[in-house]
Amino acid sequence: MISQLLFGEHFKVLEKRSKWSRVRAVFDKKEGWIDNKQFIEIEENEFFELNKNTNNLAGELIDFLSDDQEGLTPIPLGATLPFYEDTSLSILNEKYSYQGVTRSEKSPKNSLIETAFMYLNTPYLWGGKTPFGIDCSGFTQMVYKLCGYQLLRNASEQAAQGDVLSFIEESEPGDLAFFDNNEGEIVHVGIIMEDNYIIHAHGKVRIDRLDHSGIYNIDTRRHTHKLRVIKKII
Questions:
Q1: Annotated catalytic, 225?
Q2: Hey, what domains does the chain have and what are their CATH numbers?
Q3: CA proximity to 78, closest of 37, 134, 20
Q4: What predicted TM-score, i.e. pTM, was given to this entire model?
Q5: Pick the catalytic residue: 136, 147, 202, 225?
Q6: First to last CA, the chain
């Protein structure tokens, strides 16, 4: 698994086979294969309408949609609510009701850390994007998305966004720190907090110390990641 498509996300089908299709997500242009049983096809005009109607996101860790037959569909934090208005949304001819908290507007930068705390202790899952399992770049992408900002999917891609900061002292809470391996490849990302702390997904979403060398794990008392660059996205 390289990523996840949450409820309500739309994508373009690039290649369709008997059981699997290769798709490209609209939000971050990520390409991969998806089981044909796990999506429904929509008309082209609805696809383009969705491009203008995907700002409403589910704001609870886990919640439910109810349909006309009172069936429940669980959705995670950050799921998209297509054509949402007055607690109602629709996909094709299916209509749903959602009574939970929504997020739809850009939030100030200081709300990034508060949003990140919603994922605290989420277990690490390669390719994950939900409170039930998330990876380092999925975590940063979802936190920014919930606050109204767009990040690409992988840490190396995110590192190409924003403006470079020369020192940790120049950073603000919400800026991103990137870390590389021995080959110089960027393989990890976290969100900078106040007072030289960082929140990131490593084993679980956790808070550790950040210094000029990298991330210092407060449990094992050793450095786990080598700092490469700090980026200001917003």
A1: no
A2: 11-103 (no CATH), 111-232 (3.90.1720.10)
A3: 134
A4: 0.96
A5: 136
A6: 29
